[in-house]
Amino acid sequence: MDSRAPRAPQNKGMSAVRGRLFAFVREPMGHGDGGSYRYIEDGLILIDEGKICTVGPAATLVASLPSDCAVAHYPDCLIMPGFIDLHIHLPQVQMIASFGAQLLDWLETYVFPAEAKFADPVHAATNARFLIDELFRSGTTTAVTFGSVHRQSAEALFEEADRRGACMIAGKVMMDRSAPDSVLDTAQTSYDDSKALIERWHRRGRLRYAVTPRFVVTSSDAQMAAAKALFDEFPDTHLQTHLSENLGEVALVKSLYPWARDYVDIYDRYDLLGPRSLFGHCIHLDDNELGRLSESGSVAVFCPTSNLFLGSGLFNRSRMKEQATPITIGLATDVGGGTSFSMLRTAAEAYKVLQLRGQNFSALEAMHQITRGNAVALGLQSEIGSLDLGCYGDLVVLDTRATPAMAHRMAAWDGAIEDELFVLMTLGDDRAVRATFVQGRLAHDRDDRNNIRREQAEMRI
Ligand SMILES: [Zn+2]
Q1: How far is the CA of 348 from the centre of ligand 1 (A)?
Q2: Structural domains of the chain in order of their starting residue, each with its CATH number
Q3: What CA–CA distance (Å, rounded) separates 4 from 345?
Q4: Rg (CA), the chain
Q5: pLDDT digit string (tens) for 191-221?
Q6: What's 437's DSSP letter?
């Protein structure tokens, strides 16, 4: 697709996608939970005005399709709901893969200089376009995204997501201390800019706002209060931030907040816990902290490639799930601390992190997490993450024989769908994404050579 095309007439008319349909109907209880998903060997999804209106076996549906309905047919591919990334940073898409630091030094050395460039709206727009291209190439159709401190970074992101029809939950970062002036706002300007963004973009089409204090280190008391005021004033926004990622950070937080019982307690005192609150990382938490996340219904967002890359630590999924009320978990790339835009790569690294914890992460649990599970974490399961009627026609078409290694592995496949999914998550990446549909429209076609050349030409501009 030409990503510079004018805003498309988004959803006119019917379209259909045919192939091997796979989607979850509930959370799987672990390996072998066959009741958690629906699989149709030769299925058809009919999309009308951007939303799924019919799903079933192709044999019974093809004959009744309207004569002008285009059918995209992928006979050997798995078709799933588009992936959902619960935590990614727009201003870090070009400083991904920066060498040799852990969190606090990495912010200082690489992140803040990269984020300062987003004062330039042209730079912000170029990178927003790149980010959404890359998400679609990876089969991701919904993302929860941090901007930079500059209002124009969020403007660029919302503008591009709206034009491309993607579901985007995003916000401008709020930070008023402990960083260079070029990436600081004030409590008042962060409130004013966030509010202006909410009034302009929140609930426009598929866009939603997330109030975005970066983390407690970079926000003053007054700014945390401003975040709370916004969160109260607009009660259907989300909140995104970071929590207990790195031991150096945890020690710094302890010194900055001597009155706090622990890290979670700080967000708690500012009254920012709850089901709409997404906390990135959540690694070094004690029983009290886990208890408060559980009681409040807050969401813990696991970012495995980032946690490994920055040497932050190993997320403890079982401990989250063992709470009296299991903590809602999300999974995310956290680019640029994270090292891949692909939720398949992210699921593979999650599996390895949990192996180091002596925990299992079955293919069913992983694929559920990056589709329906992340939708549930956002409270958006009636719109995204499944193939239920009424959901948006956001789809990823997956080629489980995309590379020689995958094809060779699949030649020894015994036909069990769960094994195929495990090959996909372990060996797959953007090469395994044959196509991506957003609201029923083709948004990425891996095999369209013209498309690739066009994208490369755009990036040279
Ligand atoms: Zn992050």
Answers
A1: 19
A2: 14-81+389-460 (2.30.40.10), 83-341 (3.20.20.140)
A3: 28
A4: 21
A5: 999 999 999 999 999 999 999 999 999 999 9
A6: E
